[in-house]
């Protein structure tokens, strides 16, 4: 009896449980589906909205581009410009702020820039060699109550104190301009030394700086004279601390034959007049063309 | 499966959002460029702000805030102008190309340095790698009125060729300063010795003439050139050119005329530019006290 009862209970109850689970799952599934559909609809709407926004922007850009074209045309014709249509006063002011901020940033590219501080000014001196911008140096200069440098990142071998003594009290602009010359020349010499180290070891070797100011530089390089390889030693002396080209280039070779000596004197003026890496590129390409022509001569000789 | 159905939209949304961001940036740039071309607009906007009512309170607050920002920037710029000697009047920066680790910008800049006006168009490349960021100028065009100054025009083309923008600014600044110094010096001597000093081409020219009022046939020309060398260093070079009639040269047995130029150079070394010219005027023009005191 008991057994039958339990069977009966299990049968009906489990069936009911199953039904309940089924309906629950169905409800969950339906709800999930509904949500997904809703999300899909929302995304669809968002896509449409974004597309509209994009097309509007595109149209606006086109309109401005046409305007710019028109201005260009009038500029060439030498006419006075009217006002750009459709730009509100607010927007104009915003653009004005943008332009002024751009100008402030632009000063960094000129070598001397800075920001006023409570006590004076924080100056940034940027350096460059040809088109490449190099290290920047900073100085915190107090102007009140008395003029003085409170902090700086100028390397110790730059005669900052001496320059400051000469100009800082009387002419801040002059002080910065003299300091700039020292720093820019130093950065330029250092840059050329770094470039020197990137040449292949088979061509340039033993590159060494003589001091931290980079005013003495020695290295060895290989050339071919009359199809024979020679190793030349170069010592470049940068006589002016505000210069980034050497004032003297001493090149030596153990061999004394005239053709080598001739090469030496031509290289010496090449080093004094050109950036170091440019001069070496020139020497190496000269060598290659010579090798090529001698190789082809060799070729014709064989056949 | 439903999830998969959602994906195309999500991808498109992401793409669209990215595109809109890029377009917004472009829009800002063309807006700036249009405004740059019609610079009158800035002034209009500023003028109308000062002269009229703005109905919307909120907007007024925004505008006031913007005006304050403009004022701040202008003060800061003025300060930088004094430090560097450079003044910018118009500037436009445009993105030419942008990727994750590098960007190319195109710049247009109009400005002046003392009385020298310049207009630049250049491109910069900013690249970022793991341990450092670098910036370089990859193209440089300089438009300047420098027909009268051959040294300057030579320097400008050299700088363009080597894309040395920084050197251009620094050398231009000291060149302009020397020009100003020369102009002031010439004008000061003209004022002090109106009869002896002549400025036939104006105070901004490269030379001034000296003559003795009692002997108008003889003239000395002080030529003051401002040289810019290969590395951008600015050096003043002064020369003395005597313009003496041949008859007078024939009488000059001891070679005074011939030695004048080297004598002047020695004088410069000892007394400096100002002192040398002063002494030259005193001795050559034999001025009576009346002229000197004018």
3D structure, described in words:
The complex is a heterodimer of chains A (303) and B (294). With 303 residues, chain A is an alpha+beta fold. Chain A folds into 3 domains: 9-110; 111-198; 200-303, no CATH class. Helices cover 57% and strands 20% of the residues of chain A. In chain A, the strands form 2 sheets. Chain A has a 4-stranded antiparallel sheet with strand order 1-2-3-4. Chain A is elongated and about 120 Å long. Chain B has 3 domains: 2-54; 85-145, no CATH class; 177-291. In chain B, 53% of the residues lie in helices and 28% in strands. Chain B has helices spanning 2-37, 40-51, 57-84, 150-162, 165-192, 246-251, 256-284, 289-293, and strands at 87-98, 102-113, 116-128, 133-144, 197-198, 207-212, 215-228, 234-243. In chain B, a hairpin with a 5-residue loop joins strand 7 and strand 8 (234-243). Chains A and B meet through helix 1, helix 2, strand 1, strand 2 and helix 4 of A and helix 1, helix 2, helix 3, strand 1 and strand 4 of B. Chain A: Pfam families: CENP-O. Chain A: It comes from Xenopus tropicalis. Chain A: It is found in: Nucleus; Chromosome, Centromere.
